[in-house]
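Before the break, one more example. Copy the sequence into your notebook; we will annotate it together after we see the structure.
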Amino acid sequence: MSVDRWNTALVLGGIRSGKSAFAEELVADAASVHYVATAVGAEDDPEWMGRIEAHQRRRPQTWSTEETGGDPARLAAVLAEAKPDDTLLIDDLGGWVATLLDPANQPQNDVAMVAALADALRACAGRVVLVSPEVGLSLVPATPVGRAFADALGTTNQALASVVDRVALVVAGQHTWIKAAAVNPRPAQKVVAPAPVPAETQPALLVSSDSPEESDDVVFEPGMDLPMPDQDTGPDAHDRLATLDLTGAGLGSLGEAIEFAAATQSTVTPQPWSAVRVLLLTGTHAGGAGAGSDPADAARRIADAEAGAGPLIRLAGQVGADVAVVRAADSGAMEDGPVLDAEAVEAALRHGWQLAGAARADGRDALVIAAYGTGAEAAATAVLSATTGAEPVAVLPRVLAPGGTYDDNAWMVRCAAVRDALHRIRQESRGALDILAQVGGADVAVATGALLGAAAQRLPVLLDGPVGIAAGLVARDLGSQVRHWCLLPDAGTSELVKQGADVLGLTPVTQLGLDLGEGLNALTALPVLRTAIGLASSLPAHPALGEDAPDD
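Here is what the structure looks like once it is written out:
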């Protein structure tokens, strides 16, 4: 796991506090987990064996288990052997300390053993969650042996807490993070530590990016030379699906995601996306485009995201994604004149291009485009209408007010703004850069640059929402290869998204009818896509097919 997401965590708690269950939730998103059990079973103690068996029943069948038993040095070796893609759950350090203090393992340098374990944890390449009893809140044990155990465990907890990225304390089934991850930010980015989130989520790192890094010499013009996904592995992966050893007829429409992943990864057995970055764009469109919007509410939602709160951050945490909050420049009123000048369009495109490059440099393997700002839906509607001839009143989303009511008067004002803008440019050039300058605005331009940059980096993009679709339409006219790097997890209820996706040739993978907001729809569908891709890649051909099965 890369350095910009927590790699190691220590979960502390008392007896029956729920610490083990919480630790298991932290690794629930992993494809497989290596469970390291430190407790030594005692067949003459039925109650103790019952506790061990309860833990065993709770683990998924896909997890592997290793018992370090009576060898305290084995735990450091397990950490040293872990690979970058491995996930380890160690439960718990109390058992390890008990083994360390066992007379059968003496004499030895206990302090050196604890230091060696801390060093191994610091250098571990895999993702590690450790569970340990918190004994410092109880009474001082009455026996010398009890006091030695409490002292040794307390020392061990302190040593490991100093090297892990995060520390959680669990009390009565409720957790709080008492140590946040310390991350070295990129030079042009401000890293914001997330606020604690509910137990079932994994906190997502938030990256706030207000300006692009120094750009390269890319020229944004029609006919950009961008790579294409592998044209053979996608169809080959599709054909392979028919041979899988399944009890049913197949994976249905999820095959679209498998074929897409195969083409973008150049293999017929692709891996699920494990390191996703969400680009959360925010900008303001002046004039009638923002009718019915509350700028203060938009600012509140963005501030929540930067503080590690809100539904997008919650879902990002659950799927292990990070979020880059990107503040685009303000855009003018489309009904009055161009919303951006040529220099602002160029700067926004370069910003998006560099954001995609930064994501690839940070080890991300997929992007999600999301947007939240005043007037963004009207701008996306204007782009769709200007590029495809779609009727604005048929595709402009209704204006949802707090409480689940619709503001039809505000919707009509937005319609009028789009209508007047289209009338204003009826005799103007409709090139991609012209569309961004006349009606698209800075947020759509940044998203367009990100799509172009993602294609250049061979980085797949999960489109979600009006801004991403509008950006796809503009990017298509600059580099037609872009659409082949885009996947639409779910079209939701937006007619704008459905019509724009149809023009781009994108078929929604699922039909969930989601309307959670930009970015949230894709993150909700992501676990299903991951499951399908992982399952298809891991299954062999049916034995009855014999040599007729295609080669992998």
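The two ends are 27 Å apart (CA to CA). Confidence is low (pLDDT under 50) at residues 1-5, 182-208, 210-215, 547-552. Try to locate both features in your own notes.
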